[in-house]
Amino acid sequence: MLVQEELIARTRRLCATDGRLDAALMYGSFAAGEGDAYSDIEFWLFFDPARLAEVDPREWCERVAPVRHLVLNEVGTYVAFFPGLVRGEFHFVATDAIAGVAHWPARGAAVERMVVKDRTGELTPVLEGLPDSAEEGDAEALCGRFANWLLLAHHVAARGELLRAWDALGAVQRHLLWLTRLHEGAVRHWLTPSRGAEGELSGPAYTALAEATAGAADVDRALAAAWRTGRALWRELGVPVPEELFGELDRALGQ
């Protein structure tokens, strides 16, 4: 048994016995049946609003396993670092936050694998109302956003802000991944387009994407490779081409 599977079992038992908890769901790789030794464990915990203030996130996570460190991340999720370098993501919220689940783009897993506890009966129908997987994005919008990030990265690199350009290159690469997935019909992991890319994309597509990666000192070469791949995908997806912009980007990026 994987360490993560044991932690999931402990979390499920804790959810079952915590009288303050109205509902709980598991999401992510293990809920989708794709978890492995490198995956996180991920839960939403919906507490009785009158008792949420009683809940100490660190103490709760310590009841799952010893916590090496606990951090509240940039989106308000508590991340516990468990022994063995296993990450656990836990959302501690009130039961009325269940209504917000209805606005998720997709479930990503079967309802029966996600629901850990549903004492009030509110959570299950909300999950059942969600699509299993997210709809792919609009090709024209994605192409435009790709060009936006590409030009930003080019400008800051030309200014000499190589680390900022390298940071923007990450957004360029993400949009290239989405465009490539659209082109190849490989949209299963749409919300996290890099997930499983090695096995889901064709060899030539993967090679082209790899060429658009770089360290900070090599960002100009990566941007040129990104534009070469992106401009081809733009045309092949049948998106209207702003030819004057293409010409300027060709000259700027050495195409």
TrEMBL record:
Gene3D superfamilies: Beta Polymerase, domain 2, Nucleotidyltransferases domain 2. Residues 139-237 form the Lincosamide nucleotidyltransferase-like C-terminal domain. InterPro entries: LinB-like_C, NT_sf. It comes from the Bacteria. This is Lincosamide nucleotidyltransferase-like C-terminal domain-containing protein. It comes from Streptomyces smaragdinus.
